[in-house]
Amino acid sequence: MLLRLLAVPVLVSAYRGAAPAAQARRDPLREPDPDAGGARPRPAAPPARSPLLFLLALIAAIVAIARPSAVITLPSQVQTIVLAMDVSLSMGAKDVDPNRLTAAQVAAKSFIEQHPPNARIAIVAFGATAVARADA
After folding, report:
1. N or C: which terminal CB in the chain sees fewer CB atoms within 10 Å?
2. In this structure, what DSSP letter does residue 45 have?
3. Residue ranges per domain, the chain?
4. Does residue 14 register a pLDDT over 90?
């Protein structure tokens, strides 16, 4: 998209080439005055700002359309831990005292209490569907 900026010098040279031809078509010194029946001096023309403003607007539009962006990688000292917990009906089995679900909950609570301070912990409970919860 930024390659379209290469058209700017072409537009400038085309404008400069067209400007002398337009100047030659006009009478630079006198302009007829219908009231006085003669010629009167023409007031000084204001500087041509509109081509410059058009060029600046065109450059700004091209840069905006190009959406310049930068990818900045920042070092992170934060770890992410995801605990997946089965909460289906099979976790109600009593082969572990008092049952599998309660034993898994106790183990998860113990792990969360001992986690390092720079770690984020998320818990995903799954059975028939999955539900995620992030630790604050």
Report:
1. C
2. P
3. 2-66, 79-134
4. no
